[in-house]
Write the structure tokens for this entry.
Amino acid sequence: MSGRDWSAYQLVDSERELRVSEHRFYVEQAKTRLLSQFANIEAEADQAESEHWERSGQSFDPDWHDPGDLADAARDHGVEFYQLLSEMHDRTRLSVVAGMYHHWDKTFRRFLVREFRWPKLVIGDNTRRALWKLDSAKLERLLEAIGLDLSALACYPRIDAMRLVVNVFKHGEGKSLDDLQLRYPEFLRTSSHGWNLFDDTDMEVSDVHVDDFAASIELFWRELPATVKFDEANLDVPDDFAKAWNKDLEAQKVSRFVKQHDI
């Protein structure tokens, strides 16, 4: 690189609006087709209790059965039914959040792969794949090098929290759970294990959180600058990306040599 200012990318208004509209569609349909199915689980649990009681009555023998025991069994069945549906609701809600986050992450990376070809940041298969493989911290460092500080965006804290929530949902205990407890403890209910210990079962995401996450992704596409500029002479990128760029550069040199000498 010879040292000049480049525009890192161009986000036109039509694409910005497209990203917002497709995101809104996902959220609206997820609520309508998935989350709305859990709106009346208390009534459904009551119905399950009643049906269990009726089935018990069909084989009731006063010489052998205690009505109180049958009533307790029906009540226990209703409670268990509610708990299982509530857990399914939690998993479905987290699945919706995970789908939302992963679609945003892939869409953004795909946008960067396409746009980074113009300022010669993506120059071959190695740099293209590197953009997909960089973890969130390294990707943020690369973006900061080209003039885009994601942490300065108003949407960043909620998107960062969403990333951690999705990682805990997918992997269970680990660094993401530790970071979630440290930075966003509102997503962890009081631990049932004592001694201030948490595991992934203590994570709690509400419908309000889903709305907050959805709003943060829409805000991201609204906030993302139309372009940013960087000085290629002072470009400090992650080592993984620099190595990939050098590999692509060497491959281009070899390809030109082969063509010139008709090998």
Q: What stands out?
A: The chain has a mean pLDDT of 90. The CA atoms of residues 138 and 238 lie 6 Å apart. The first strand starts at residue 5 and ends at 7. The chain has one domain: 7-36+95-262.
